Amino acid sequence: GQSLEQPSEVTAVEGAIVQINCTYQTSGFYGLSWYQQHDGGAPTFLSYNALDGLEETGRFSSFLSRSDSYGYLLLQELQMKDSASYFCAVRGAAGNKLTFGGGTRVLVKP
Amino acid sequence: GAGVSQSPSNKVTEKGKDVELRCDPISGHTALYWYRQRLGQGLEFLIYFQGNSAPDKSGLPSDRFSAERTGESVSTLTIQRTQQEDSAVYLCASTLPQSADTQYFGPGTRLTVL
């Protein structure tokens, strides 16, 4: 089977940097994705890593280490609108299915 | 359409009743997924359709749950004899071929079973 672990909640102030870690267990590995979900809203795709290293998309970056079964999402220059839940998701041997982590709730304070 | 649409947005039903939830994917997206999200939790995979291939039903929690999709269009998720533990948000997502990691989600249907 597949499982992912990520912290349940993180609190930070505007302008700060937050790192959300995700460790996974999977048979086979195709990639690690990150999604953002505001309260009452739909998840939206943020980033994807299939190979080791850092992917940067504006204020958000995502990192993957396949040897450590580990990745993280880095949120820089935090803004109030970044308050949301963030989910990591892995695609493993099952092919075209994603298995999602439980989500990390990020609360940004002024 | 511009995005994935789902209906109804909210559904309140009595225990034991059947419900049908609808998903209209983005045009051209051959893959369609259904997920369940309980309050404060992650997304739980239910079922996956890819074109005209047999669906992957491995996530359906019981035989009370079923889903259909005709070709690459609308899908319906049916829950028979609803139970209180079925209360959740049901999310639908669609993707382009070979792009399973970039899923486009609909707004979801919030199901409340009394």
Unreliable residue stretches of chain B: none
Number of strands of chain B: 10
N-to-C CA distance of chain B: 34 Å
Determine the oligomeric state from the structure. heterodimer
Helix/strand class of chain A: mainly beta
State the low-pLDDT regions of chain A, or none: none
Descriptive overview:
The complex is a heterodimer of chains A (110) and B (114). By secondary structure, chain A is mainly β. Helix content of chain A is 0%, strand content 57%. Chain A is built from no helices and eleven strands. Chain A has strands at residues 3-5, 9-13, 18-25, 31-37, 44-49, 53-57, 60-65, 70-75, 84-91, 98-100, 104-109. In chain A, the strands form two sheets. In chain A, strands 2, 4, 5, 9, 10 and 11 form a six-stranded mixed β-sheet that branches. Chain A is globular. Chain A starts with a strand and ends with a strand. Chain B has strands at residues 5-7, 10-13, 19-24, 31-37, 43-50, 65-69, 75-79, 88-95, 104-105, 109-113. The mean pLDDT of chain B is 94. Helix content of chain B is 0%, strand content 46%. In chain B, the strands form two sheets. In chain B, strands 2, 4, 5, 8, 9 and 10 form a six-stranded mixed β-sheet that branches. Chain B is built from no helices and ten strands. In chain B, a hairpin with a 5-residue loop joins β4 (31-37) and β5. By secondary structure, chain B is mainly beta. Chain B is globular, with a radius of gyration of 13 Å. At the A-B interface, β4, β5, β9 and β10 of A face β4, β5 and β9 of B.
Features:
heterodimer, A: 110 residues, mainly beta, 5-stranded antiparallel beta sheet, globular, B: 114 residues, 4-stranded antiparallel beta sheet
Chain-wise SSE layout:
The complex is a heterodimer of chains A (110) and B (114).
Chain A: E1 3-5, E2 9-13, E3 18-25, E4 31-37, E5 44-49, E6 53-57, E7 60-65, E8 70-75, E9 84-91, E10 98-100, E11 104-109
Parallel strand pairs in A: 2-11
Antiparallel strand pairs in A: 1-3, 3-8, 4-5, 4-9, 6-7, 7-8, 9-10, 9-11
Chain B: E1 5-7, E2 10-13, E3 19-24, E4 31-37, E5 43-50, E6 65-69, E7 75-79, E8 88-95, E9 104-105, E10 109-113
Parallel strand pairs in B: 2-10
Antiparallel strand pairs in B: 1-3, 3-7, 4-5, 4-8, 6-7, 8-9, 8-10
